[in-house]
């Protein structure tokens, strides 16, 4: 892989120093500001805009998010309860590190539920894979342009659509809440063009299996696909030791 093909690996940013947080805007809804702050911080942690171990300052976060310190303080307390942020005595508040044990548990949940969703979708003789085919084309475009973020989002959308076709879209939301650690590992391992090609081919085989109601092939493909990122875990922990715990 030449240097231009290397995916963007985030630096250990601290809040207020190029963390790329999106300001919280009034949307007319009755959603509490602290809830919107919480969701933005969860997304930033998931996408590694706030890297594992990054220092978090209430003042810097409030300035970036264009809110007062009170909703930031409330959101940080929730993040601590969720295990996404830790308070280190005499050090400060930091983004939690990646736990490979948690990644493995998330993999188990995702694989189990996605195989189940695939099985249900396969049983529907009218299943329509048009959206899945469109998402594959988006991935092809992302591969050609080496747009790793766009590839990641199209990848997520494809798996979400499988759950929607099963009639259980809420199950995907449950998976999302569970797999934040897994997503951070996947982000850290954003592939080069050659690996993106392998993932797209694998996605295409999954869609083909669904369209053909090929349950055995679909089960095997989804299981293998779900374990890809975890297989990179030991190597990534060696490459980025400061990002991992346990």
Summarize this entry quickly.
The chain is mainly alpha-helical and 246 residues long. Helices cover 63% and strands 6% of the residues. The two termini are 30 Å apart.
Explain what this protein looks like in three dimensions.
Mean pLDDT is 89; it is low at 1-18. By secondary structure, this protein is mainly α. The chain has 2 domains: 12-96, Arc Repressor Mutant, subunit A, CATH 1.10.10.10; 99-245, Up-down Bundle (Four Helix Bundle (Hemerythrin (Met), subunit A)). 63% of the residues lie in helices and 6% in strands. The protein is built from 12 helices and 5 strands. The chain has helices at residues 33-46, 58-65, 69-81, 100-122, 130-145, 148-166, 169-178, 180-188, 193-211, 215-226, 228-231, 233-239, and strands spanning 55-56, 85-88, 92-95, 98-99, 244-245. Helix 1 crosses helix 3 and helix 4 (100-122) packs across helix 6 (148-166). The strands form 2 sheets. The protein has a 3-stranded antiparallel beta sheet. Strands 4-5 form a two-stranded parallel ribbon.
Which strand order spans the largest sheet, edge to edge or round the barrel? Answer: 1-3-2
Bulk shape: globular
Main sheet specs: 3 strands, antiparallel
> Count of DSSP E strands?
5
Radius of gyration (CA) equals 19 Å
Shape-level CATH architecture of the largest domain = Up-down Bundle
Residue share in β-strands? 5-15%
Determine the structural class based on helices, strands and strand pairing: mainly alpha
- H-E string: HEHHEEEHHHHHHHHHE
User: What are the segments in which pLDDT stays under 50 over at least 5 consecutive residues?
Assistant: 1-18
Q: Would you tell me the overall average pLDDT?
A: 89
* CATH level 4 superfamily of the largest domain: GntR ligand-binding domain-like
Helix content: 55-70%
Which topology of the largest domain does CATH recognise? Four Helix Bundle (Hemerythrin (Met), subunit A)
């Amino acid at each position: 892989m030449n240097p231009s093909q290397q995916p963007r690996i985030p630096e250990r940013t601290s809040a207020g120093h190029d963390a790329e947080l999106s300001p919280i805007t009034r949307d007319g809804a009755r959603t509490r500001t602290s809830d919107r702050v919480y969701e933005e911080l969860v997304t930033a942690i998931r996408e590694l805009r706030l890297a594992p171990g990054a220092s978090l300052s209430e003042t810097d976060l409030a300035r970036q998010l264009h809110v007062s310190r009170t909703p930031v303080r409330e959101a940080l307390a929730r993040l601590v309860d969720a295990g996404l942020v830790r308070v280190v005595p005499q050090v400060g508040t930091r983004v939690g590190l990646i736990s490979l044990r948690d990644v493995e548990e998330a993999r188990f949940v995702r694989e189990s539920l996605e195989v189940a969703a695939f099985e249900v979708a396969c049983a529907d003789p009218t299943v329509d894979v048009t959206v899945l085919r469109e998402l594959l084309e988006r991935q092809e475009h992302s591969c050609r342009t080496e747009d790793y973020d766009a590839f990641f989002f199209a990848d997520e959308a494809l798996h979400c659509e499988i759950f929607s076709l099963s009639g259980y879209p809420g199950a995907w939301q449950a998976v999302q809440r569970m797999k934040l650690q897994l997503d951070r590992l996947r982000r850290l391992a954003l592939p080069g063009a050659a690996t993106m090609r392998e993932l797209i081919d694998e996605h295409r085989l999954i869609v083909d299996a669904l369209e053909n109601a090929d349950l055995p092939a679909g089960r095997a493909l989804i299981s293998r696909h779900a374990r890809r990122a975890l297989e990179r875990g030991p190597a990534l922990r060696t490459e980025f030791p400061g990002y991992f715990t346990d």
